[in-house]
């Protein structure tokens, strides 16, 4: 079901008819029925901001409350829950990240984990080379990422090296080579850019920054579950990502964090807590960290939120990232054709080359803000991104081609 097999046409009626053909040929089509339907939902185009709940989640939550929480009470920590952040981390690592076990753990929010990783990287790199004093980040990076970089720079007397990348693209190996040098400590980049959906050449960018003696923290909030990641093969140092976007863990679901095994010996959590300690219930004096990535846990992890997340990980394990990626490319290619045909006054601010594109598109149009507000009221749900972007997120397991067609047709009406 590659996009190239579909008949090319800019005719709206033929484009509309093609949705049924694409859905019928989609090997993952049955998965769209595995999600709780929304009451007024016409087209959900924001799975990149908050994934829909998997249909098995209500029963899984009910079973957790009865059997584990009520059933085991405090015994649950010893019997079930203490190992869950690492066990679920390993499953995400295997299914989505190309990460061998022992390098991924589910812990705090993405924001908090970015802080922990950058702080750990600063300590490590400066221990070897105290003269390094620069943190690298894109000038239009996601706000939380920029805020943390600025805070750490201010607190540790470092300089922020702001990088300008085009708004419809993101970090490239060439740009990384320009900005990484003998002063660089660590660069924080997005695997898939939150606005443009630019999928960076993560292996090559990592190589270029490491060649300058520095490290990279990859924020994979829009990449995990949408594009296949190969952290071990790419030599990634550190990565972090949301689990409520394409991992459908629900509002407030805890993020995951990856640290390559070669950095474990020197890894230091800047927020040491008892549940990241070697022996949490020994209540000993002095902090002795758990081995490896487990030490990045600080306080009590949100076990309840992990229940919903695990249900989506099960679906991803069954479908497999290669098939998910193939459908994502077909969905976004079809969506771009629809935008070109139905909204000629819009600019597609997302790579047209599918190899450089994640699973969402941003189109820019002067009427975006008003149109999105009107669409939300009618159950068509994209999102607005300042100053004039409409972001259309296509979550491969929950989105049908018919839904994309309905949504973009409604968007065309609302924008006109
Ligand atoms: C969504 C998103 C976040 C969100 O961080 P939280 O701590 O979960 O609120 C961070 N970074 C990027 C790039 C994102 O897209």
From TrEMBL:
Q: Which UniProt keywords apply?
A: Hydrolase, Pyridine nucleotide biosynthesis, Pyridoxal phosphate
**One GO CC term, this protein:** cytoplasm
Its recorded reaction(s) are: 3-hydroxy-L-kynurenine + H2O = 3-hydroxyanthranilate + L-alanine + H(+); L-kynurenine + H2O = anthranilate + L-alanine + H(+)
Q: What is its EC number?
A: 3.7.1.3
Tell me, what does this protein do in biology? Catalyzes the cleavage of L-kynurenine (L-Kyn) and L-3-hydroxykynurenine (L-3OHKyn) into anthranilic acid (AA) and 3-hydroxyanthranilic acid (3-OHAA), respectively.
* Subunit composition and interactions: Homodimer.
Q: What protein family does this chain belong to? A: Belongs to the kynureninase family.
Query: Under what name is this protein listed?
Result: Kynureninase
């Amino acid at each position: 079901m590659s996009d190239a097999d579909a008949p090319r046409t800019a005719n709206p009626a033929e484009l509309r008819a093609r949705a049924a053909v694409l859905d019928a040929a989609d090997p993952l089509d049955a998965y769209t029925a595995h999600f709780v339907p929304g009451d007024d939902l016409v087209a959900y185009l924001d799975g990149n901001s908050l994934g829909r709940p998997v249909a098995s989640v209500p029963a899984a939550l009910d079973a957790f409350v009865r059997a584990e929480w009520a059933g085991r009470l405090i015994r649950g920590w010893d019997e079930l829950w203490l190992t869950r952040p690492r066990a679920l981390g390993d499953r995400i690592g295997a299914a989505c990240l190309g990460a061998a076990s022992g390098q991924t753990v589910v812990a705090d929010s993405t924001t908090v984990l970015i802080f922990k990783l950058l702080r750990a990287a600063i300590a490590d790199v400066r221990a070897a080379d105290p003269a390094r004093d620069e943190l690298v980040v894109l000038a239009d990076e996601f706000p939380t990422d920029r805020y943390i970089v600025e805070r750490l720079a201010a607190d540790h007397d470092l300089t922020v090296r702001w990088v300008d990348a085009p708004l419809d693209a993101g970090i490239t190996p060439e740009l990384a080579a320009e900005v990484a040098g003998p002063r660089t400590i660590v660069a924080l980049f997005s695997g898939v850019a939150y606005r443009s959906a630019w999928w960076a050449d993560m292996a090559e960018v990592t190589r270029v920054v490491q060649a300058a003696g520095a490290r990279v923290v990859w924020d994979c909030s829009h990449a995990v579950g949408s594009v296949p990641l190969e952290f071990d093969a790419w030599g990634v140092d550190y990565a972090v990502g949301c689990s409520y976007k394409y991992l459908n863990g629900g509002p407030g679901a805890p993020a995951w964090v990856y640290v390559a095994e070669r950095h474990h010996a020197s890894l230091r959590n800047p927020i040491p807590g008892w549940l990241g300690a070697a022996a949490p219930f020994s209540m000993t004096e002095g902090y002795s960290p758990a081995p490896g990535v487990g030490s990045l846990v600080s306080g009590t992890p949100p076990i309840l939120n992990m229940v919903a997340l695990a249900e989506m990980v099960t679906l991803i394990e069954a479908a497999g990232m290669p098939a998910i990626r193939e459908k994502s490319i077909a969905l976004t290619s079809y969506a771009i054709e629809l935008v070109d045909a139905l909204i000629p006054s819009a600019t597609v601010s997302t790579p047209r080359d599918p190899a450089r594109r994640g699973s969402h598109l941003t189109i820019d149009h002067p009427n975006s803000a008003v149109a999105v507000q009107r669409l939300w009221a009618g159950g068509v749900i994209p999102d607005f991104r300042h100053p004039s972007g409409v972001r259309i997120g296509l979550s491969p397991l929950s989105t049908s081609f018919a839904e994309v067609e309905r949504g973009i047709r409604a968007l065309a009406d609302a924008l006109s």
